[in-house]
Amino acid sequence: MTVNDAGSATGTTLVIGATGTTGSRTTAGLIAAGHRVRAASRRGSPVPGAQPVRFDWYDPATFGDALAGAERVYLVPPVGDPDPAAVMLPFLRQARSAGVHRAVLLSSSAVPEGGPAVGEVHQALPALFDQWAVLRPSWFMQNFTGTHAHALSIRADGTILTAAGSGRIGFVDADDIAAVAVRTLTDDRAPNSDLVLTGPEALSHDDIAAIVTEVTGRPVVHHNLTYEQLRDRLAAVVPLEFAALLADMDRAIAAGAEDRTTDTVQRITGRPPHSFRTVAGRELQAARDTSSTR
Question: Number of C-alpha atoms within 13 angstroms, CB side, residue 180?
Fold first, then answer.
């Protein structure tokens, strides 16, 4: 076993989605802190410093190998599945039987306990594990810098398309989510609660467009769609039920549902969350500098 800064012994942590946005960062954070990690992905891709393992939510035959020796698990739900509980709950029951005693679930600020999709998994978690946490981050800042549809449309034609109107969101840096994940996985005591994670300020998509324009030097504008227009656009790439759920979230944003900030990142990690301007400068400016040297 390894020992964290507080002096507590921790065993191996299984990170599901270890090559994804928060999973890769959580894996890196755990390794940097000296913890053993089994890095789970559908292809079992190599991850420096971790033991790679193949894992597929839709292939229960991969569950046993992934869980071997794991005491803690970071759970990233299957992407685009309107009913993730159907595959996640059997896995979690198997995890408990295999000796996992702490589970940290990635959910969303828009999905309460018992709500749709991953909300059902959230509701079931306390009965399955004595030590647990549900991370409920707001929308990721990396949606505008990485491979999300917003980032792609920004790069392609300088637009952000939403049905969120002028509604504001406490966008959060994936690095901050991962920092909280590492602490909730390895601290002596698990939170045994859900944690809403935001950045330091609530911004509209018009605000985001203005900051991206400033950082990149390329004009970016936010175009507002109707609920139906957004749902139909999303339905071209995800199941209709999930597209409708996502469009509903934008409609809720327009009504003010995500206009909030929390002190969770500061409270859990001991440092303030990063601003979007900081993240945009770090990731978009770096990408701009790289492309200009080619």
Answer: 30
